[in-house]
Every structure is written in C-alpha cells, then in structure tokens.
Amino acid sequence: MEFEINDSVYRNPYPPAARMVSWTPPIHDFVAVNSDGSSLGNPGLAGFSGTIRDANGSWIVGYFGSIGRADNLLAELMGVYHGLQTAWDMGFRKVEFFSDSTDAIRLILEDNITYHQYASTVMNIRDLIEKDWIINLKHILREGNNSADYLAKKRAHQNEGLILLDIPPIEMNLMLFADASGFTF
Description:
A hairpin with a 2-residue loop joins β1 and β2 (8-11). By secondary structure, this protein is α/β, with parallel strands linked by helices. Mean pLDDT is 89; it is low at 1-9. The protein is built from 5 helices and 8 strands; from the N terminus they run βββββαβααβαβα. It starts with a strand and ends with a helix. The strands form 2 sheets. The protein has a 6-stranded mixed beta sheet, with helices on both faces. The protein is globular. α1 runs parallel beside α3 (119-129).
C-alpha cells in the first residue's frame, strides 16, 4: 500500500490486515437470499442472479435472468427485485437479504430518488419491502456472495427472462458445501 506525504512517496511497511470472509447463514427461522448482478462492459450484456437457502446452507431455489444491455447498478437492482419477489411468492416471511452492491443498497434506502434513472425499479423494490414480512437488507463482501456471483457470471447472460432453479447446477455443489461448512476466503 502506498500513499503520498508532502510530495514524496511513503511505503507502508505493514501489509493491510487480512479479512476472513465466508457466506453468512440467516438467523433461525429466516432464509438467506443472496443476489448479484453482472454487466459485461458496463454497460453491456447484463443479467442478475441469486440463491435462497436455509440456515444450514441448504439450497431452496436459485434464480437468474437476462436484462439485455444495461449497467452494473441496474443488474444489481434487478437481482434484488427478483430475489425479493421470489422469496415472497414462495411464502417466506422472514428474510435476510444479502447484496454485494453498496450502491444498490444505498439507492434503495435513500430518501429522494424521484429523478434517478432507476427510480421505478427502486420503487418496485420498496413496494416489496413494505409488504407484511421481515426483511433484513445487508451488505456482504463479494467473497461471501460466491454462489450468487457465480450464477450472475455464468448463467445470467443467457438470453432468458427469469429462470428458477429447483436444484443447483452440479458445478456449484462444492461451492455450496464450502458455504454451508463455514469455509472462509
């Protein structure tokens, strides 16, 4: 790590502290929804994805879809929207929702978004949040959002609308096992 002091370069002799990151299971009686969005080019071909899992890390359902040409923020917001809608439609009323996009979370929680280009999408998300259920919206580091990130990059850019996955893709089994076991990165 380097930073400037008085026009000279100072090298910090201490490396940055390492952080151990893992998937965060939901509290008892809640489900965890992890969402992600991805844009190849920003803007570029974009999609969203996510997983819904129980407190043991067991797969309940996954989702992904394409939104055509868009930027990362819209892709992230669509991941949040479809994750909340899927959880609601499946009857879950206690949800811990994880996104690795601080920009999306801030926009959802911001007071005045009237003139934002994604105001209608954010309002749709807020309408879902205001339903009769408990939602804990949380930021998670990308390394703790591994399964949703994988789906966003590998599956979300297919030319499909919303797709629900009752079973995880076989290539995700080791990743899901690591999450459920508390493996840290």
